[in-house]
């Protein structure tokens, strides 16, 4: 994973340029899309963490 750091950095620069060129309504749509895509993995991690906490709470 350490070998791909430069590639990820390049993608961030492209997203920044794209977001900077958008109008206000499109920028809000982009932010909403990012949050929408992030919601499911965060919910899965939260559920797994909560289940782990419940099982190890009494130990």
Percent strand = under 5%
Number of strands: 0
Helix percentage range: over 70%
- Taken from the alpha-carbon principal axes, the silhouette is elongated
Q: Pairing-aware structural class of the strands and helices? A: mainly alpha
Commentary on this structure:
The chain has helices at residues 5-21, 24-56. The protein is mainly α and 59 residues long. The protein has a domain at 24-59. The longest helix has 33 residues, at 24-56. It is elongated and about 55 Å long.
Primary descriptors:
59 residues, elongated, mainly alpha
What's the arrangement of secondary structure elements?
Blueprint: H1 5-21, H2 24-56
Short description:
The chain is mostly helical. It is 85% helix and 0% strand.
């Amino acid at each position: 994973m350490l070998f791909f750091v430069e590639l990820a950095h390049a993608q961030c620069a492209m997203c920044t340029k794209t977001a900077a060129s958008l109008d206000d309504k499109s920028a809000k749509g982009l932010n909403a899309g990012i949050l929408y895509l992030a919601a499911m993995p965060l919910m899965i991690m939260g559920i797994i963490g909560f289940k782990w906490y419940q099982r190890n709470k009494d130990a």
